[in-house]
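[09:14] KT: can someone run the structure on this one? pasting the chain below
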Amino acid sequence: MTPKELVGEVTSLLYWTMLAACTVGPGTVVTCSRAGAEYGLHLTWALLFASVLAYTLQEGTARLTIVSGRSLGQCLRIKYRDTPSIYNTAIVGWLVTGSIFIGNTLYECNCWAGGIDAVLAVPGAAELTGSAMTGLRVGCCIAYAVIVLTLLYLDKTDKLGIGLGVVMVCMVVLFLIVVSIMGFEWKKFGMGLLPNLPKQTPGSAEPTDIILSLVGTTAVGFNLFLGGAMAKGKGIGEMQRGITFSTVAALCVSVLILIVGSGMQDQGSSDSFTISQLSDFIQKYVGKAGVVVFAIGFIAAALSSMLTVPLGAALTADSIFSDEELPVEKSSAEDLIDTKGQKLPRSVYLAINFIIVFIATVLIALNVDRLVVILIAQIFNGCLLPFLAICLLLCLNDPQFMSSSPQKGWANIFLFFA
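[09:31] RB: done, structure tokens below
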């Protein structure tokens, strides 16, 4: 491989790390550290399973886009155009859009909750009480909303990938340092790779809820649509290497966070898990400077997810509620390729973003239980994955879209059981 080819390959891999950075958001930090704090390394297997599922879903929808020239939403619209519809859109299209909208709204609340916890991770912030704490919480919610809505309105999120990649690297380095200092037992880690259902510990969430939450935060539904959009103009081999790298990177970060959380359990912490406990634990190993790095990285991860979540919902609606006239008969997938421009009016596109951001801002500003918000969001999106997997499976096995690169049997089996 020549130096030029090497640079091109590295650039391509960094491009796909946007999927990993969108995966490793505030929900991942909270859920993985909580899983470690409450159940040690017993649930490591759930992260491994979720990562394989995430790769299968993302690779499938990206390959669907490359081969057919259509996003998953557009393929569903074409496939079910002759079924019962509402306003010229098949009912299945409404179900997909509605599910993604609800799931992403919950996920945005999750991002806002994580964003507030990230601010409280700054040394001294968690010590505020009364009106000072209320002012900090409400002020941060409004500040997040202003930043996110401004960037979405100005359409300045196209160069987000590099920044997200930097955040990803910072998170890896920070947790890697903590893990290397505190150490862990390889035997426990190996046993955690075997599927098991540990007993619920006092003050902890149900293990099944944590497992679903780990799956929901690792195999993110809207990443299917984001991955499809990123795949436009790419080759299949390049795409598969990029998604593999992204998935492995996200898995490594998630496992590192879980290991750090398990260190809290090893030290005999019996209180209900909070982010402030995680900050205090990190401070023992890397000092206040490390906590500041953790807080800044946490805030950046929250902001990046705050931007991509409403975009994912709008992108889904944009691909399904297309105004273009679909031909009655088609001889090949190439006859259907017309991906120029945004089909939804800009006002509708922005309205979707505004509604999601507004709901998240109000709920978190009202001081609802943030850990509960994060858990509900992850569980809902985890339960949504089978529905999206079925939709993807049907399109991947439709010859009108995938005749030149049919779905492999092992992927069909995994998607079916998932």
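[09:33] KT: thanks! The two ends are 38 Å apart (CA to CA).
[09:34] RB: yep, looked fine to me
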